[in-house]
Amino acid sequence: MGTPQRSVVIASLLIITAELCFAGVSALVKYLSTYLPSEQLVFFRNLMAFLVLLPWLWRKGPSAFKTKAWKFHLSRGLAGLAAMYLFFYAIAHLPLAQATLVLLLSPFIIPIIGRLWLHEKVLPQTWLAIGIGFIGVFIFLNPTTATLSPVVAVAFIAACLAAFTKTLIRQMSATESSSKIVFYFASLATLLSAVPLLWMGQAVAPQHWLAIVVMGALAVAGQLTMTKAFAMAPAARVGVFTYSSVIFAALMGYWFWQEPITLSMLIGAGVIMVAGYLAIRTRRKA
């Protein structure tokens, strides 16, 4: 029996809401990066997520988190944290929509990593979707009429690391529960991101604490909303709406920092959404 249309509509709205939350996080990171180093923002982002998880972790109890997959958890933690550092740096130095769009290449990189690392079969339709996705990014960035910032490469590396972490999660899920994966990443990311603050931390002005709290709250709300959406409807039906984040990022960039919205950006975003839809439909058939 197919998913009821009402569930698909609600799930789609939840994903759009989640992406609005994530775009809000990016905008707050860009605002706060003027006053605080990226390392400090990464720590606060992870700390807020960990604090929200504490009541849930308390109910689970320590016995629920026994694991033998330490190498996987550590690799995922280091790669995920590195991706976060690089993405926050990219947000601080690129137009908001550009940084967001390059990170959205992550779903197209996952099959490439799966092919090279795990020797997984990649369908011709998936290669077509990947090619269309990269063409969409080229159109969006429009390097023929403007000089690209080298920070775009930083955002691309962040996208590759994000794709690597998602591939790791898929491997880990065979033996590890989602609660373990979330717990160990939140713990490791919080602890490791605290280390640079020993020499790079600085005082936070009172007026910036509200933005930090809102940033963390939006990040957690976005993750929870996204999880709920994919529990209600299959990714093949609603996954394409994850690309709405670039639209929200472009609007916020224009509103707060007067970053221009061009025709090439609109066309490129549309091409990427088509590529994302093709990729998701292909995974459903595989």
TrEMBL record:
Residues 11-140, 152-278 form the EamA domain. InterPro entries: EamA_dom, EmrE-like. Keywords: Membrane, Transmembrane, Transmembrane helix. This is EamA domain-containing membrane protein RarD. It comes from the Bacteria. It comes from Pseudidiomarina tainanensis. The chain crosses the membrane at residues 7-29, 41-58, 70-91, 97-118, 125-142, 148-169, 181-201, 207-226, 238-257, 263-280. It is a multi-pass membrane protein. It is found in: Membrane. GO terms for cellular component: membrane.
